[in-house]
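hey m, so remember when u said the tokens were messed up on ur end? i reran from scratch. heres the input so u can diff it against urs
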Amino acid sequence: MPDAVLNIRVIPRAKRSAVAGRRGEAWLIRLQAPPVDGAANEALIAFLAATLEVPKRAVTIIAGERSREKRVRVTGVAEVSAQERLSAATARS
């Protein structure tokens, strides 16, 4: 099964962590964590792992570690499945 590679736009210091839809090609994800000492990256990995129902070790930031625009690889999940799960999470928010 090929890995999913997702474009993510992070908004740190939100009231609560949630998928906020899409902005262009990227998924907009609000995180409670501040962008300090990698806290937002850790929160993003934990949030995506929970949302996509994979272990945290399956989620890797492959580009943009110090940016709001990130590319994330999710191992063991097909691209279509990952997109569907994020869409469902958007509907729940």
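this time it looks ok to me. Residues 39-52 form the longest helix (14 residues). if urs says something different then somethings off w ur setup not the seq
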